[in-house]
Specification:
single chain; 206 residues; mainly alpha
């Protein structure tokens, strides 16, 4: 694409969207690696997927992909096919990267608090990148973006509410200290989204 064919300043080009999806999902996959290195969890559908993978022995990527499938119907009906397609691609990319990255990058045991903070920062950045390119990682992200656009409820607030439910469930399975440290990462993630992803501060579209 040349300078003469650049899209309007308020709209991302196709190649910008492709790069955004790759970068956003890579950051999220790295966040999952930090969580798994310390046996931590997170919120949203990713959190449910981690809990399920720990308990069942199934891979995170497979569980994450399957749990997101029912949310695509809501995305199609309320947000549109363009958003749904990019979200489907993002979920597929993250599922694949969480399967491939451990074979390319190995993390030594990391202090749980450090893992929680780094995972929160990485996943916060990853979600912001995806949101700004008209995609999310399915599940609660779809509901959060829809409510923000139609009801004015901050996406980070919606996600944090769901996260509290996930962590309450986790208390029945994991030690409370693991849940408490994991919650730190989830709070960092949602604060980053709440502060940095607002329609009145960012107007570019995909």
């Amino acid at each position: 694409m040349t300078l003469l064919t650049l899209p309007p300043a308020d709209r991302h080009s196709l190649w910008e969207d492709v790069l955004g999806l790759l970068v956003g999902t890579c950051l999220m996959a790295l966040a999952v690696m930090f969580l798994k290195a310390s046996g931590l969890i997170t919120g949203q559908i990713a959190g449910l997927s981690l809990i399920t993978s720990y308990v069942s022995g199934w891979t995170f990527g497979a569980v994450f992909f399957v749990l997101n499938l029912p949310f695509y119907l809501l995305a199609i009906r309320q947000i549109g096919w363009r958003f749904t397609l990019k979200t489907f691609v993002a979920v597929g990319l993250m599922s694949a990267q969480t399967e491939l990255l451990p074979g390319l990058l190995r993390l030594e045991p990391v202090h749980p608090a450090v893992s929680a903070v780094l995972a929160g920062v990485l996943s916060g950045l990853g979600l912001i990148v995806l949101f700004r390119h008209g995609a999310t990682l399915g599940g609660v992200g779809i509901v959060a973006l829809w409510l923000q656009d139609t009801r004015g409820i901050p996406a980070g607030t919606v996600q944090l509410g769901f996260d509290l439910a996930v962590f309450t469930l986790a208390l029945a399975i994991f030690d409370w200290q693991v849940v408490a440290v994991s919650l730190l990462g989830a709070v960092i993630l949602n604060l980053m989204v709440t502060i940095n992803h607002r329609r009145d501060r960012y107007v570019a579209r995909s």
